[in-house]
Amino acid sequence: MFTLRELLGRHRTVLLLDSASSRIQTGLLRRERAALWESAETDAGSGLFACVEKLLARAGSPEQPLHFAEIDAILFCDGPGSVLGIRTAAVALRTWKTAYSQTHYSYCCLAVVGAFLARQENLRSFSVIADARRESWHCLSVDHAGALGPLRRIPAAKLTGALVQPSHFRHWSALPAGVRGVPYDLAVQLPAIDDAALFHDAPEPDAFLHEEPTYVTWTPQIHRAPA
User: Cα separation of 30 and 72, whole Å?
Assistant: First the structure.
């Protein structure tokens, strides 16, 4: 795992894509230069690419925007959250990979929120949650020492302790009692925790899955009239 500080030491220009929530967030992070951010509250199929285009235009000159080939690495949120939004970003990365040679890294949005609250608010012994549907929740716990636990999927009835939910994350199940809404703003949160090891190598970008899907083998049979 890597910190943001380490990645910017390795790569001069880094693009960030986050379409896990209803608010798309994109960033252009460059060594020794101010970060640029663009966001949009629209569908990922159009908003993600519009935001990237704006970033490239802002990073270059009025006559010549930054070329995509000048991006050295891409960070993307692999979940949990909007599966359609996350997979839209993953498909884009796989497509760009055929033409460019960027290195890809993934991160968990709940880990960003948990690390930020533990650092900035000195919050301890709490869990960051996001709806996993079917009366279950994605859950990442922070212990009494501020250490992040693994991402788990937990039935709603088994959620306990202090709970927070990031803003702009949709939910279909009823919110657990006492849950606190907190911001999810990468432009503010990531610089504050740039020494936290949150990023993984992601050579084959895809949405996070708690377990790989399983399939039942279908055995074809000839239909016959009842005896």
Answer: 10
In 3D, which of 115, 120, 161 has the Cα closest to residue 137? 161
Domains and CATH numbers, the chain: 2-108+183-201 (3.30.420.40), 112-182 (no CATH)
- If 0-12 CB within 10 Å is exposed, 13-18 middle and 19+ buried, where does residue 112 land? buried
The model carries a pTM of 0.91
* pLDDT on residue 217: 76
Summarised one tens digit per residue, pLDDT across range 74-122 is 999 999 999 999 999 999 999 999 999 899 999 999 999 999 999 999 9
CA dist list (Å): 152 to 85, 143, 148, 214 = 20, 14, 12, 19
Reported as a pLDDT band with limits 50, 70 and 90, residue 208 is: confident
Residue 25 makes CB contacts below 8 A (sequence gap 6+) with: 16, 18, 37, 38, 39, 51, 185, 186, 187
